[in-house]
Task: structure prediction
Amino acid sequence: MRVTRTSSAASIAVIVGTIILIALIAAPWWAGRADMRLLGEIFLYLALASLWNLMAGYAGLVSVGQQAYVGFGGYMLFALTIFGGLPPLVAIAGAGVLGALIAVPVALLIFRLRGAYFAIGTWVMAEVFRLIFAQVSALGGGSGSSLPVDIVRSMAEGRDAREALSYWLALGIAVVVIAAVYLYLRSRQGLALTAIRDNELAAASLGIDIWRTKFVVYVVTGALTAMVGALIFLQKLRISPDAAFSVNDWTAFVIFIVVIGGIGTIEGPIIGTLVFFALRETLSDLGTVYLMVLGLVAIIVMLKAPKGIWGLVRARFDLQLFPLGYRVIQNKTDKD
Result:
């Protein structure tokens, strides 16, 4: 019964998701500029939240320094376009490659830490990144830099076309990230990752290489986060160390999204992103009260629904919109 209900919900989710995706792709023809900017921001935060959830919710790598890769990706976009002469779209891909390369030595260093020390270590690395880029005078130093007009115009002819392209890129990266996370978790590596999440000691006894599995997740997450960061600052057209490496904007809000949505689930970041932006658009005019409300919501959710909003819904209705094959087999085996 559980498998049937999950399969039915997944089929409905595919149909509804396809309709929504088609409508979102067509947004430049029915939405205003302000609406498109808001939707683009939602997509970028959704991508960041899904990536952080993959690291923390599945690999157990609780990072409070993911702003390091957001800022790094943004600065690489500016450097590759201004000094490398690359088109912005190529520079975004280049930022992802460079993000993966820089994640390798960072991982080798911070993977020596465990628990809270690992989390603190990721934040320290982000601060190191911020201080380094603040010293690069060619990119504006501490005051930052703006993307040259000729580079912005090279994206597309006309402001409307450029805003539509930026919107489609944000939508595209969100879809790619969610699809990549889903397909990865359905693979053999994803099964190993889930086993590590559930019981690291038992996973090791089964021959799973825990260090390598986590290392791959960290590097891939760093690459994709750098690409998201490049897109963020391609939309903003300006970058500075404080904005690029803001722990509040690129990590605290992302953690809030994942926690209230449901950590360790694909659906959680989607729901959390919608709730976060609903609260932000409703309460942002209240100043500091807005942040207090966010904190209060987070506390209530953690007390009443430790597994997040989606965890509460799934427990109540026995639903899973993104079923993973091995979980269905496990349920069937348990039943037999």
Summary: Residues 326-336 have pLDDT under 50 and may be disordered.
